[in-house]
From TrEMBL:
Key words, A-Z: Calcium, Metal-binding, Repeat
Molecular function via GO: calcium ion binding
Protein name: EF-hand domain-containing protein
InterPro entries, per the entry: EF-hand-dom_pair, EF_Hand_1_Ca_BS, EF_hand_dom
The species this protein was found in: Spumella elongata
Region Disordered, annotated ranges: 250-292
Amino acid sequence: MGSSNSIAVIPTEWMEIFRAMQLKKSEVKSLYKLYKQYDFDRRGGNSKGGMDIVEWLTLIDIERTSLSERIFYAADRDGDHRLNFFEFVVSLWKFCVLGDGSLNVFAFDMFDTDSDGILSEADVHVMFNELLGEHHAHTAQNEFVLADWRKHSRDGSMTVEQFRPFSQTHQALFHEIFTIQRRMRKRTLGIRYWHFITKRKIELSKGYFVQTSEILLLHSDRRLFDALLSDHTNLKVSATKKAMLALTENADSHSEHHHHDHRSDHAPAPLSEEDQLAPPPDHSRHRPHASR
C-alpha cells in the first residue's frame, strides 16, 4: 500500500491533464505533499475533505479580500468552496504561470462574470472596487485611471481587445494581483521554480507551440479559442489538450461567496527550502532572471 503522499493514488485522467500542462511528476508529487499538508478538513475527520479556500489563503498569509478569494473561487468548479487536489493544481498552475502579458487577460476573465467577452459597466464597477478599493474615486491617480477608462470604453464597457492596451498603460492597477501571485509562488514550489515552468512550451497540435506563460492569451481571440475546442480549425488538438484548454476558463461565477469565520489555530509551515524543488539546470545561453 502506498504512502499517503504517493502520487500513485492520483487518478490517471488527472495526471494526463497535468502532463498536458507540462508539469513533471516530481512537481505534482511536491504539490500533492503540500496539498496533504494543508488539507486539514480530511485530517480532522471531515469526510467531505478538500481544502477550504478561505483557510488556505489565511494559512499562507494572503490577506482575505474579495480579490484574493475571487482568484481561487474561479477554480472551484463544483461550487462547494473547497478545492480537491485537481482544482488545487489547476488554480495554482493557471495563476502562477501568468506572465506580464497574460495577466491582464486573466484579470479580464475574472471580472467578466457572464463570460460574454465584454466587461459591462457593472463588471467594471466591481473590478475597480476590488483592485483599487471601495473609495478609489477619492485619489487623483485613480481618478485619472477612471477617466482614461471612460475615454477608451464604449458606454462604460470594454472587450478584451480594448482592455489589453488599456491595462498595459495602467499596470499599477494590477499591483495587488502581482503581489498575491508572488506570495503564492513563494509558498508553493518557490519563485525561481515557477519561473522555469513559465518558460516551457505546450504543443497544442503538431508543430503549434504556445509558451506556458502566454496560454491565456488565446482567450484574446475568442473565435480562435472556441474553434480550437470545437475542431473548427486545421489544427488537430487532442482531447486531453482540449480539456486542459477548457480549464483555463473560469468556473461558473457565484454572485455571493459564503465566507467562513473559523480559523486554524495550528497553521502548518510552508514547504521548507529543502522540500521545495531545486530549479532544473539551465542549458540555455542566458540564465533567466528571477521572477518579479
